[in-house]
Amino acid sequence: MHGLTRRGNYQKYLNRNPVQRFLIWYFHRWVNELLGASGATTFVDVGCGEGFTVQRFRSAHNHCLVHGVDRDFPALLGARRTNPGIVFLQGDVESLPFAAGSFDAVLCLEVLEHLADPIPALSELRRVTSKYCLLSVPNEPLFSAANLLRGKNARRLGSDAEHVQKWPAAQFVRMIAAHFQVQRVVYPFPWVMILCTK
Fold it and tell me: pLDDT tens for residues 64-116?
């Protein structure tokens, strides 16, 4: 990701707006609940950015082995500063630096919507997990509508300029079902999140 994404991540995760903070908390509550119930103990967060999700997940599951991967080196430096003891590596979602089946579970949250072609990324995520994959994307058009209501990206009717994919939830679920076995779908507004298996 680039500088705009880094600023966007900081605005999203460190925002003092109580509604924004609640939405992020609720999103991570589902991450923790779905992965915690899976029984998995080794995880990699693909597209981890500055490590905000890793930090929240590790605080709830400190017995687990967690890695993070991102292609943005400055973001990784931030992740390493705030998450001592966790391994963060530079890599791309389409070519991950791990052997097949390296992790019980792979997280790929708020990444796929940035890709012109998500299929190679899905194949790579499937390769490195031994069982579980947790995926999330903005649930359109709800995501853009929520942005518009709070005056964000008004000139683009709430649409994020960095999102090249704009999936309604049902369409995203159908795409994932072609590559994984869908186990559970949840809708932490304004996102859709899928827990699936190989």
Answer: 999 999 999 999 999 999 999 899 999 999 999 999 999 999 999 999 999 99
Q: Structure pTM?
A: 0.90
In whole angstroms, give the CA distance from residue 170 to residue 141: 12
- Say if CB 58 and CB 31 are below 8 A apart: no
Length of the chain: 198
| Distance, CA of 122 to CA of 83 (rounded, Å) | 27
Tokens in use for 176?
């994932």
- Tell me the domains of the chain and their CATH numbers: 3-197 (3.40.50.150)
Determine the Cα–Cα distance for residues 86 and 68; give it in Å rounded to an integer: 8
Structure-block tokens of residue 115? 């890709």
**CA torsion, points 137, 25, 13, 43, in degrees to nearest 10?**
-60
Nearby residues of 152 by Cβ (< 8 Å), 6 or more positions away: 158
Angle between helices 3-14 and 73-82 (to 10 degrees): 30
Q: Which residue has the tokens 């579970």?
A: 105
